[in-house]
Amino acid sequence: MPKIKTNSSAKKRFKLTGTGKIARKNAFKSHILTKKTTKQKRNLTQTSYVSDGDTGNVKRMLGIGK
């Protein structure tokens, strides 16, 4: 069996945590920031986790697991 190639765009965007969850950054923080409140921009800075429904697809792109 050949090795599975890691998706290059996925390895730049996702990170595996110590507990096995996949961390990601929030969208909507790159431009058009003048109309967003300070609180909204501050909350978008924090990292989030990939939802359970998308975890399998992301793990497949990263070559983790099956």
Summarize the structure.
The protein is α+β, with helices and mostly antiparallel strands and 66 residues long. It contains three helices and three strands.
List the helices and strands and how they pair.
Elements: H1 8-13, E1 15-16, E2 22-24, H2 38-45, E3 48-49, H3 52-62
Antiparallel strand pairs: 1-2, 2-3
Protein name: Large ribosomal subunit protein bL35
Pfam family, one: Ribosomal_L35p
Family: Belongs to the bacterial ribosomal protein bL35 family.
What does this structure look like?
This protein has three helices and three strands. The longest helix is centred in the C-terminal third of the chain and has 11 residues, at 52-62. By secondary structure, the protein is an alpha+beta fold. A hairpin with a 5-residue loop joins strand 1 and strand 2. Belongs to the bacterial ribosomal protein bL35 family. One of its GO terms (cellular component) is ribosome. Keywords: Ribonucleoprotein, Ribosomal protein.
